[in-house]
Amino acid sequence: MRTKSLTQAFEHAAEIMLEADGRAAGLTGAGISVASGIPAFRGSQGLWDKYDPFEYAEINNFKKQPEKVWEMLGEMLAVVEKAHPNRAHKALAELEGKGLLRTLITQNVDGLHQAAGSLEVIEFHGATRDLCCLSCDWRWPDFKLIAVKNLPPHCQQCGAVLKPDVVFFGEPIPERALLEATAAAEKAKVMLVIGTSANVHPAADMPILTKRSGGKVIEINLELTPLSGSVADLTILGPADQLLPEIIAACERLVGNE
Length: 258
Ligand code: APR
Hints:
Helix 1 crosses helix 10 (240-257) and helix 8 (175-187) runs parallel beside helix 9.
């Protein structure tokens, strides 16, 4: 039996989404991909429990000891290559298809939003699909682990160890992604924030930009975050792959009753 408050929360979220009349943006974090088998970074079983992010995901350490960092990267890529979009990814693609969500800003590097059918995706921290060389301009598009006998993979132009085209700590956000995400956040009348601990900036600033521009923020997460009770107008706690389809159903009921 569902609590009344949860039903009311879905209806409240649907009202905000429909009021936005399509001018809605999304911000997703690792939590949305947990149901696809990709561990989040923080919290129980988080990747950063096993690997110190400032040792394994910091750019200067990568340059000093790339082979060591590839111990973590190899494990991460093996999981990402096996992962498929879950109901939460598909729900966001459905919202875009219904004209209720315009732009999706993701901190995730797993490509699952595009695999689920989302078209307008801004990869704020890059993506694992391509490898790049820090010593020359060579790139390995659509890299798969099966393509190499041993890790780490090396540049076929200069021999340097390659790096997935993701943003490490100490690296800037790709300029185009930052500009597009900022514009989308400022234009949005609502931002759906899903599965992020809202700890890492400037990604976590995006909902604040929406708020500052007069928009609303709906947060869906397993736990409270720095956005809860302040920036977020509505926080619904629970698994995104269960909550998002409920919000879509509430939107359909609301449209049906109009
Ligand atoms: N549904 C909804 N939320 C979930 C679920 C789920 N099934 N599972 C976990 N969560 C929540 C957790 O409670 C947590 O608050 O998702 C959040 C994941 O937080 P993080 O692991 O910190 O991931 P994220 O916020 O994406 O991290 C941001 O930090 O390490 C860097 O570059 C990395 O992009 C990453 C950034």
